[in-house]
Amino acid sequence: MKEGKSASQTVYAIWCVILVSLAVTFFLAWQNHHYYTHPSVVMAKSALYIDEYPVEGWLLWQEEVISAPLDGALKFVNGGKVARVAKGEAIAVVQGRNRRVVWAPEAGYFVPALDGQEGKWSFGRLWLDYDDLPKEVRAKPVPQGVDVKRGSPIGKIIPLPQALRCVFYTYLTPKIKENLERNFLWIRFDERDIPIKVEVLAKEIIGLKARVNISLMPYFPAHLTVDRKLRFMIYEGRRQGVLVPEESVIFKEGKQGVYVVSKGMVVFREISGVPTEDKMYFVDDGLLPGEIVVLKGDKAREGRVFLW
């Protein structure tokens, strides 16, 4: 009796396992079917994408070091700030046994700061020894009221007008290569600025990069005179397209695309574009503003759907 009862319990347990397994299988099948036929979707939103990337370059200008005419206490006329001065304008006073005024030898920017590269900074050095240059070359202000010795440097004059130049490396994208062949580039200094066209004075192709010397004329604001390194953007152009979540974009059979919902059907459509910030993807070909896309592309498939 006990053996028969034990066998019955075993059979009962097996049937329970089978029934639970079938229930789970049917539930998962229903869940998958429901997900495929009722996917989460998003709308492609109109967007503008700007093709540009940051670069760093070294600035080059002509300059003349100004020296103290005698021993004494130094006082700058403009309070120790970079200022545009006329030829013959007073830029400093040295008070010692005598009082001597320092006059601007030329019109331009008077910079009451020094970086130690005065007289050493040249186009030849920038062009030939670019990789061996210091990481930063920023001028240190000459203190107001400091005691100076006769002949010691107290600042420098950067004559104006003159063409401010910049030497840098850039990647050779198709657009950059095309523009370099025409001896110009488009750049901008801030995302709020409009691009400006600059003349290419010299260029050298080195593998996938180019070494370039450009003229920034007539751009030459005073704040650039205290740092020989310039950070800016190489601008290539802008494209009109749409934005979708990055997770909507997948690769299928070697093609990049998204699942688009149209007339109750989900179909895979090939696209082209680039990833952007905030886990979004800019599509410049293959999608129109307002089209509906399945949110999770890796879990979607073609077929009929019911969104509402």
Automatic annotation (TrEMBL):
Keyword Transmembrane helix tagged: yes
Transmembrane segment boundaries: 12-30
Keyword terms of this UniProt record: Membrane, Transmembrane, Transmembrane helix
Top-level taxon in the UniProt lineage: Bacteria
Protein name per Swiss-Prot or TrEMBL: Membrane fusion protein
Taxonomic lineage: Bacteria, Thermotogati, Synergistota, Synergistia, Synergistales
